[in-house]
Sequence to fold (357 residues):
Amino acid sequence: MACRILHCGKSVRNYDICVDQKVAGFIQRVGNTGDIVYLVVKVNDQSMCGARGVLSQLTDNKPWPDAERYKQCFILRTIEYCKPFKINILSRLDNRNWYLKYVQAAKTILDQKAIDLLEQSFTSGRTDLFCRYNEESYEESTEIVDLAIDVIEESGSEDATVSEEEKINIMGTFQTINFTSETDKRHGLESLVNDNFFSLFPVYAEERTILIKENRKYLSVGLDKKDTGDNMISGIRGIPDSLLIHFYKDDKCPFQINLIEYECYGVQKVRTIDKSNYLNGHILPQLMRFASTFSIVTDRKIREDTVEKWTNKIVDYVYDNQNDQNKITSWIREIEINVNEQLIGACSILNYGYNVQ
Fold:
């Protein structure tokens, strides 16, 4: 007998249907007869649990408005109710990864402490009646039950704090992620790939690379020009999504600095014409901008100014991170076995040469 959480996203309608018609639906084939399932719905930005049941036999009954999403459905038996409690109590056990470990994709909960905490929270508030939310809580959109993919919401302010529950996580290959945009804090491509970079690109060994995610500090230098009124016009500039320093011991330039750029169309661009316009009007010009910034055939001042500023910022970044300092030290020792300890520093990158790609 397994224990799992079935999250209905923000769809109060789907949550009620599960209880009223005694059915549970899963987007992935994860359930088994006899599993205890805690039903959860997000209301006012809080994931609340107010009912649970036991999976009985498989059924073809799919009463939800988005029925085609569910690959596996069970009849629920022994349904019980409780005063709704916040499911984020599980963060007491793992503050950073609790949502991924216990909720996402309705996975089997293996941690006995988590199982006991759910049991205690449920039984301490057990009731005879199902606590329903108001009709106005019903969502117009019928996307979701069982969040294998988190609910897509509009971003708040840039400085808004994002909880672990709100973020999306990669569960494995062959999974569709509907990114809101590239930079959205909860459902953005940039933050997700940066956080999972070394898992997604195993060709880059973490011990041979330094990934710099603080991309806003790395603005390329534009060529300023004067207009007809003799006023200065700032040249076109660009910001990469991250920087990757890669160490190649036997290369003529052992330190390779890679500009990482992620692009996605986002959920708003669904038509072919929208995607084509975005590709030709944004993605390709941005890549060309970076290429021209560091090309040997471009304006020498642009190239030299950008390289100098970026190099100094990279040195400062490495000096502020002890782990990265240790990496640089070990790399230089590979090149110069007998190098004096006091001569080793982040600035040694400049002495051994680097290559921008």
